[in-house]
Specification:
By secondary structure, this protein is an alpha+beta fold. The protein has 13 helices and 26 strands.
Length: about 500
């Protein structure tokens, strides 16, 4: 037995031996490059990090991102936008054919030097440019572009492209537009970015441009909001995005809930056609096929309902706020007033519960009647992503800007819901199936009115029937809501 094993080892081909040695050297290299990254991360001051939104890529995430590129046979030209310590470009170059070259752009001069050191461990043809990405003119000559851009909101700007201007509201999408324009035809881009671009009004221009310009190849969403950048104090839904400069080809590889500690190839995924992931004219993207139980329903807006955002921005209207009720005043509702599935007023909290009569001239007062209120903010760790409550107001009232309200009017005109419809809608929005739907759609802490309008919803008649089956109060638990819906719509286990 021992002799046979020894003979087998002795008969290892030279190619096998070389491959094994290459693997070992790559492991050693990655440790060295990872150390450069870790030392730079430890040295970053909080002020500098906040100023430039620097979140340096950890080695496990870098390996996953670099591993998404299609193996190349011929030398490739690699671009790293906002290279940090160069760990991403180095990982890509380490697996690229001999003769490949790297261009890295990093405006922080200290990090640019680190990029040079890291990348030259694996590649001789290296150019590091210590400038802002926006100050460098790039030709569309790159076969591979990789980036972990800054995640920072900016005032809306329009970036010119060959197909027209693209409205941008965040730095990371600006970097992506530049990255994709730098790709040669058939080239590939991998980005480590927030998931927020997949939904919401602010990103709709970018989504449309991206899906028209590229083939969407991979969507890989991390399961935790903090495990991917453990040492960088970031709490954000992050994903790996891979696109290629060509028309959409085949289905998209979708990974939902990945871990940075396990190679991507060993984690489950599904191949899904693009049309099964996109919704509406704004091309909102999901990370799963829609639950077939929801396919029978039109969207909330198609059912004749509209979602608007509360009109009062409190810090712009401080003079209206009142801690006590006065003649001519109106009730003011905040998220504090949401108690379970009901809305209570007044409540004991740190916020004023009324606005004075001066509000009548500010276009913030809403008509009396029945509504469904939805909190505009929630996190994936919360029990419900959509927190809905029923409101019946016998007087005109005011809603804070941190609340959405559902009515049967338009964007210009608020019309209260039928009371039974308002109560039925509150129950529907509190259901598990709706929670699951929204978690697949939303990649941010914001619950956008735009997304809610796309939510599959029973008809007003069915919502009224639902309100007759269950009361809207704290006595109704989650199981009762879900069980009632199963019976009402004859649902079986989703297939």
């Amino acid at each position: 037995m021992a002799y046979a094993k020894s003979r087998a080892m002795a008969n290892l081909s030279h190619a096998q031996w070389t491959e094994d040695r290459t693997r070992i050297s790559l492991v050693d290299m990655s440790k060295s490059i990872a150390q450069i990254r870790n030392e730079a991360a430890a040295a970053l001051s909080p002020e500098r990090q906040q100023q430039w939104e620097q979140f340096l890529t950890p080695a496990p995430v870098a390996e996953q991102a670099a591993g998404l590129f299609t193996p190349a046979v011929e030398p490739v030209r690699i671009l790293d936008l906002g290279s940090g310590t160069g760990i991403l470009a180095a990982m890509v170059a380490a697996h690229a054919p001999a003769g490949s070259g790297v261009t890295a752009i990093e405006q922080d001069t200290d990090l640019a030097k680190a990029s040079e050191v890291s990348i030259r461990q694996v590649c001789d043809d290296v150019e590091v440019i210590a400038k802002s990405v926006f100050d460098v003119l790039l030709d569309d000559r790159f076969d591979r572009v990789i980036l972990n851009p800054p995640y920072k909101k900016i005032s809306p700007v329009t970036i010119p492209t060959a197909s027209g201007g693209v409205k941008i509201t965040n730095l990371y999408t600006a970097f992506l537009v530049i990255a994709i324009q730098a790709l040669a035809e058939g080239g590939e881009c991998v980005a480590i970015i927030p998931r927020s671009w997949m939904n919401g009004e602010y990103f709709k221009d970018f989504r449309k441009w991206l899906l028209d310009e590229c083939s969407l190849d991979v969507l890989a969403v991390y399961g935790s909001r903090q495990d991917h950048f453990k040492d960088m104090d970031i709490l954000q839904e992050i994903m790996l995005l891979k696109v290629s400069k060509r028309k959409q080809i085949g289905s998209i590889a979708v990974y939902d809930g990945i871990s940075p500690e396990i190679p991507l190839g060993r984690q489950p995924h599904e191949l899904i056609p693009l049309e099964a992931l996109t919704m509406g004219r704004d091309r909102i993207l999901r990370v799963e096929r829609q639950d077939p139980r929801l396919s029978r329903f039109k969207t909330l807006s198609e059912q004749g309902m509209w979602v608007s955002t509360g009109k009062l921005v409190w810090f712009r209207n401080r003079d209206l706020l009142s801690a006590t009720e006065k003649p001519g005043s109106h009730p003011l509702y905040w998220s504090d007033n949401q108690r379970g599935m009901t809305t209570v007023h007044p409540v004991k909290c740190d916020r004023e519960q009324w606005v004075t009569g001066k509000a009548d001239s500010r276009n913030v007062v809403l008509p009396s009647g029945s509504y469904c209120l939805v909190n505009r903010f929630s996190a994936k760790e919360q029990r419900h992503r959509i927190y809905a409550s029923y409101l019946r107001s016998d007087t005109e009232y005011v809603a804070d800007n941190k609340l959405n309200y559902v009515h049967q009017g338009t964007s210009r005109r608020t019309v209260p819901l039928n009371d039974k419809v308002a109560r039925g809608l509150t129950l529907w929005l509190t259901s598990s199936i709706v929670d699951e739907w929204y978690r697949q759609v939303s990649g941010s802490t914001q619950v956008n009115a735009t997304d809610l309008r796309q939510l599959p919803c029973p008809s007003p008649r069915q919502l009224a029937e639902l309100s007759d089956l269950l009361p809207v109060n704290d006595a109704v638990d989650q199981q009762s809501i879900d069980h009632t819906l199963e019976g009402m719509f004859s649902w079986t286990k989703a297939s």
